Structures are given as structure tokens and as C-alpha cells.
């Protein structure tokens, strides 16, 4: 069963977008397992209020989620900690063929994996992270393992501490192959 939607909100069944959507904060919350979100090449705009601490798509404690064919954009330059896709304790899921662009002050992450977000496959995405200060990461991995990243293009920009992949604390057996990573900043530690 597929739902067709023309607005942001909570997803309880698989959904295909029919138009571009926009939100002042987080756009979509994945609320159940076994969900496919197919944007069909359309755009998700999030954080228009510029408060930060929000995501284009948020999946918390979910299994078997697929996010594909989306253009995900943070449309406000203010606010920190903006995430294109947030996977927290989300497992056995797929992020395929998306373009993700973050924007804000600092700590902007294209995709964040945290708290045992394990066994996920991230393939053929373009991730652009930028901020007016530091710590802008294409992919941020914390206490998450057995994830596979293949064929992605990641571009980061800010002042310092900009990383294509930022991997910290208790991450094991993540596979990163055939990705293109470009980092730049105005000061140091752009890797």
C-alpha cells in the first residue's frame, strides 16, 4: 500500500511525493517499520524557521526504511545542528539516489547515524554540507556498525573541522568504498 502525499508530516505507510514539500522544522518523521519514501525526484525543504536541531527526514528506532529519489534541502542559513537524514537506532535500511544539502551555522550533517543505527546501505547519493562556522560533516557515524557507503559524492564547506565522513566511538565494520569526497574550509582540519 502506498500513500501519495503533498505535504510534510508523520509517515505510517509507504509514500510517494506528488509535489515539492516544505516545513518550518522537521519535514518527515518515519513512524513505523517497513516504510518506503519515494520522492520521485521532488524536493523536501526543511528548517525554514532557522531554529536548527531538525532534520529533513527523521527515523528513530525503525527497521527496513527506504529513502530514495529525494532532493533534501535546509533552506535557512541560521540555526545549528541541521540534518538531512537522521537515523537513530534505525537498522537494515536504505538511502538511495538522493541529493542532500544542509545549511546553517555549525554541526550540519548530510546523514547522521547514531545509537546503533546498524546494517544500513547508503548508495549513489550527493551530499553537500555547508555552514558559516565549523563541524559540517557529509556523514556522521556514532556508535553504529555494519553500514555500507558506496558511490556517494560528498562536498563539505565551512571554517574548520569539515569532514566527508566523521566516525567516532564504538563504530565497527563500516564499509566505505568508491565515494568521492571534497572538503574545504577557511582554516584547518578539513578532511
Describe it:
- Helix content is 0%, strand content 49%.
- The chain is mostly beta strands.
Which key features would you list for this structure?
191 residues, mainly beta, eight-stranded parallel β-sheet, 22 strands, 0% helix
Strand order in space, largest sheet: 1-3-6-9-12-15-18-21
Supply the number of helical segments.
0
Task: Report the β-strand fraction as a percent range.
Answer: over 45%
Structural class: mainly beta
Distance between the termini: 43 Å
Share of residues in helices: under 10%
**Low-confidence regions:** none
Average pLDDT confidence is 92
Q: Specify the overall morphology.
A: globular
Biggest sheet features? 8 strands, parallel
Please give the radius of gyration in angstroms: 15 Å
Task: Give me a quick take on this structure.
The chain is mainly β. It is 0% helix and 49% strand.
Compile the SSE list and pairings.
Layout: E1 2-5, E2 9-11, E3 14-17, E4 21-22, E5 28-30, E6 35-38, E7 43-46, E8 55-60, E9 65-68, E10 71-74, E11 83-88, E12 94-96, E13 99-101, E14 109-114, E15 121-123, E16 126-130, E17 137-142, E18 148-150, E19 153-158, E20 163-168, E21 175-177, E22 180-185
